[in-house]
Amino acid sequence: MTMKTSLCGGAALVALLALGLTPAAMAKTPHRHYADPAASAAAAERAEMKNEVDELKQQVAALEDWKNQQAQTQAQTQAQVSDLQGQLTQANARADHAELQVAAEIQTLPTQVDADVAKHTPKTDKIYYKGITLTIGGFAAAETVYRTRNNVADIGSNYSKIPYNNSVLA
Q1: Rounded to an integer, what distance in angstroms lies between the CA atom of residue 157 and that of residue 164?
Q2: Is the pTM higher than 0.70?
Q3: In the chain, what's the furthest Cα-to-Cα distance?
């Protein structure tokens, strides 16, 4: 914005100087033929103003060149930004594809692990749980005791007194 303002300001200054010179030149009488010291001073002032206007024109041209260079640099930067945005889009697409592949691998991983564990576990009748091995086997007992007469004994009673008639407790 400042470059545009300075260019407009320079152009306005040049226009004012040009308009300022034109009425001053018309106001003088062109019929004088003698050497007037005021006229020579005015001529010197005009020459100085012309030099100043030429310098301002050169500055305006330099500013326009600088503006063109800035526009070209901005266009190159914009092209680089659009190229990088395209690369970013491609990288995001590749990342999404890789993420989907990983998710698919995670879905199949438990079944593969179960199959490998089943393949390598020994085929025994034992149960393994947290470092403890349980072996299934042994017997089941369903024992009962039935007495018709009291012998004051347990399973291992004396069978010599059958039918216990001689016993006081019978």
Answers
A1: 11
A2: no
A3: 185
